[in-house]
């Protein structure tokens, strides 16, 4: 696994590089600006990019913009975005083009090495990894009367774990229910959110997007 890091905080950048190299992962570049990051993507053709949301010069959304551009230049690039705070717009923008090979973690998760590495490998393997704290805070901001109000408490639990990127087997294990029960809950979620089987979009991704957004859609 070839990895490029984009993080303007030198201490965190070097700490990430040391952590990943200690796990025998190939960090091919550790950069401090969007321009350096994109140049490294072009030069090294990495498998995964770990990108800070807020980077110079304005420290707003430069990391997200750079990540989108990196995926345009290298289709299939896995991207794990790191943020110090829960930022709803960035979480939903990240998934807007599809959830494959994408992750969104709070920086504090890096200190929980096993969880951070699990998220990294999940994203590199083609999956999605959304920080549980991000999911929890966004859920707390869900607007009353929206589509999610249609869901039962158990269905909301299942959808929250879907948003973290867990598959059916992992959801079943976490909730102590059968995979068959998970499948039934997901079918019910799709029905209540009006996600028809013939929708062109991936219904699982669409359901997660509505969860993260928390607003009614037509």
Automatic annotation (TrEMBL):
SUPFAM superfamilies: C-terminal effector domain of the bipartite response regulators (SSF46894), CheY-like (SSF52172). Signal peptide: none annotated. Residues 144-215 form the HTH luxR-type domain. One of its GO terms (molecular function) is DNA binding. Keywords: DNA-binding, Phosphoprotein, Transcription, Transcription regulation. GO terms for biological process: phosphorelay signal transduction system; regulation of DNA-templated transcription. The keyword Transcription applies. InterPro entries: CheY-like_superfamily, NreC/VraR/RcsB-like_REC, Sig_transdc_resp-reg_C-effctor, Sig_transdc_resp-reg_receiver, Tscrpt_reg_LuxR_C, WalR-like. Residues 2-122 form the Response regulatory domain. The modification 4-aspartylphosphate is found at residue 52. This is DNA-binding response regulator.
């Amino acid at each position: 696994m070839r990895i490029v890091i984009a993080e303007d905080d030198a201490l965190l950048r070097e700490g990430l590089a040391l952590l990943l190299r200690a796990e025998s992962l190939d960090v091919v570049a550790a950069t401090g600006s969007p321009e350096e990051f994109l140049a490294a993507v072009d030069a090294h053709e990495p498998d995964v990019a770990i990108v800070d949301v807020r980077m110079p010069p304005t420290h707003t959304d430069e990391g997200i913009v750079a990540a989108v551009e990196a995926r345009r230049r290298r289709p299939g690039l896995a991207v794990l975005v790191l943020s110090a705070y829960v930022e709803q717009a960035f979480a939903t923008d990240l998934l807007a083009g599809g959830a494959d090979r994408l992750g969104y973690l709070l920086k504090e998760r890096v200190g929980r090495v096993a969880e951070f590495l699990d998220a990294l490998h999940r994203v590199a393997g083609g999956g999605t990894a959304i920080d549980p704290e991000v999911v929890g805070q966004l859920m707390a901001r869900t607007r009353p009367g929206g589509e999610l109000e249609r869901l039962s408490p158990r269905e909301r639990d299942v959808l929250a774990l879907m948003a973290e990127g867990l598959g059916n087997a992992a959801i079943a294990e976490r909730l102590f229910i059968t995979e068959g029960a998970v499948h039934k809950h997901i079918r019910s979620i799709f029905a209540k959110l009006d996600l028809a089987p013939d929708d062109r979009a991936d219904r699982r991704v669409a359901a997660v997007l509505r969860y993260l957004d928390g607003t009614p859609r037509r």
